[in-house]
Amino acid sequence: MKNIYDFIWEQLYFDEICQSKNNGCTLLAPGPVLGKGISAAEILAVTQQNNIQFPDSLIEFYKQASQLNLRWEIFEGESGGRKDTSIQFKENSWLKENYLDKGYTWEAVKILLSGNLNISELKNIIDLDDLKATGMFQAAEKIGMKGGDLRPIDFNEYAVACMKVEDGKLIDNIYLYTGFGGFPEALHNMNVTFEQYLELAYKAKCFNYWNLTYCLKEKSPSYELMKRFFPVIFPHLEADLADFGIN
User: Fold this and answer.
1) 106 vs 88: CA distance, rounded Å
2) Distance of alpha carbon 74 from its chain centroid, rounded?
3) Residue 119 CB neighbour total at 10 angstroms
4) Per-residue confidence at 2, pLDDT binned at 50, 70, 90?
5) How many whole angstroms separate alpha carbon 49 and alpha carbon 247?
6) In Å, how far are 143, 202, 207 from 222, measured between CA atoms?
7) What's the chain's average pLDDT?
8) Alpha-carbon gap, residue 75 to 89, rounded angstroms
9) Which InterPro entries does the protein's record reference (predicted)?
10) How many angstroms separate the CA atoms of 52 and 43, rounded?
């Protein structure tokens, strides 16, 4: 497992996301929320108490950070003498034709063109009452699994990255559940470990629904948005999006 602070704060946030403002697209990007790490002994105690065994990758992550929340969105208005760079999106002919002229508000489009990574706190993974409160317990039952056999790793409004519980062990393989907010109910096997999942999030700069685009490629509702506007939002970066079907 990489050093999470260096990987997320220094590399992804400071060196890449924050530099968009100097290259033609100003972003509103509060610093990532990591939280203080948890000792290995405490992780072991709480997982044993809840009769679940974590993979090494999750243990290493939570030893470094109690959670991970990173988000960014297009900034509207002038900043530091710079022009309002959101205009290039509001006046984009493709966005007008496919979204803005079809009843989508600019606020809705801006959400689609934002970024998000929200790695769960430990309690969200192990506490069954918390699973029921978030709907993940019921989601597992809806797709024919035992309630509690899907544990949320990365929360998004409509798509949740999960791990399966098998024989009391949380298996280090990520699945993507969709079914909230009107999305078609499905469980997609991403066939990646937790560490590989973070690497993919990095490549996508956490572009909204990057994980769904990874699963569905051009069939993802966010595929075309990512393909067209990743280079506009991050013009200073060399895109590495082949894993998402974007060359």
Assistant:
1) 12
2) 17
3) 28
4) very high
5) 47
6) 24, 17, 9
7) 95
8) 11
9) Knr4/Smi1-like_sf
10) 11
Is the Cβ–Cβ distance between 121 and 217 less than 8 Å?
A: no
Residues paired with residue 27 on neighbouring β-strands, in sequence order: 74
User: What φ, ψ does residue 225 adopt, rounded to 5°?
Assistant: -65, -45
HEC-encoded secondary structure of 24-47: CCCEECCCCECCCCCCHHHHHHHH
Q: Specify the amino acid at residue 38.
A: I
Q: DSSP code of 183? A: P
Q: Cα–Cα distances in Å, from 119 out to 58, 194, 230?
A: 11, 10, 22
Structure-block tokens of residue 227: 């393909």
pLDDT at 82: 73
Cα(212)–Cα(190) distance, integer angstroms: 9
In sequence order, which ranges of 69-176 are alpha helices (DSSP H)?
Answer: 87-90, 93-98, 106-112, 122-126, 128-134, 136-142
Q: What angle do CA 195, 193, 129 make, to 5 degrees?
A: 95
For 223-239, how does the pLDDT look when each residue is reduced to its tens digit (9 = 90+)?
A: 999 999 999 999 999 99
Distances from the Cα of 217 to the Cα of 19, 117, 222, angstroms = 28, 19, 9
* Secondary structure (3-state) at 76: coil
Tokens for 69? Answer: 């929340």
